[in-house]
Write a structure and sequence with these properties.
The protein is mainly alpha-helical and 172 residues long. The protein is 69% helix and 0% strand.
Length: 172
């Protein structure tokens, strides 16, 4: 479980199955709330506003998910060099492009594109009265949830690998 002290933010890897489940539950709850809020942005009649809201939501969510699992760049850098190397090796094995990195808008566009969110379809659907807006909102919600839930699975895999370091040598 992530423990936070306002003075010092220590890296604390979830140690037990219960702590890990708690981190996953908190992250998924956060994703559901933020995805719902971001998908409501289709109601704003400014072209591109909804896409900007999706990217903005991801730019907030991904670091918060990383933090819940002790995998932000700052948390990793605070580790001793040998532990840091293990964490980076586990991230490579998990194959994540979003763990332990500074999140940028370009990275979030790539993540949304990878999720299959077709921006042009979403933008056009937005302007079809009622049904189009509902479709556009649903597309936002699903894409954000997909990207974030995939990221949660990647974080979970990294933590599980770190809990069983022998898995690193088997995967390498």
């Amino acid at each position: 479980m992530q423990r936070m002290n306002p003075e010092v933010d220590h890296y604390v890897l979830p140690r037990t199955a219960a702590e890990l489940r708690g981190a996953v539950t908190r992250a998924k709850s956060l994703v559901n709330r933020r995805a719902a809020l971001a998908s409501a942005s289709v109601l704003v009649p400014i072209p591109g506003f909804d896409l900007a809201a999706d990217v903005g939501a991801l730019m907030q969510l991904i670091p918060e998910i990383n933090h819940a699992f002790g995998l932000t760049p700052d948390q990793i850098e605070a580790l001793n060099p040998s532990r840091r190397a293990l964490v980076y090796q586990a991230i490579l094995v998990a194959g994540s492009a979003l763990i332990g990195k500074i999140v940028t808008a370009e990275l979030m566009f790539v993540a949304l594109k990878k999720a299959g969110m077709k921006v042009t379809v979403k933008q056009v659907a937005k302007y079809v009265p009622v049904a189009g807006q509902a479709l556009s909102a649903a597309m936002s919600f699903v894409a954000l949830k997909y990207v974030c839930h995939q990221h949660i699975r990647d974080c979970l895999r990294v933590v599980e690998i770190l809990q069983h370091p022998r898995a690193l040598s088997a995967a390498a």
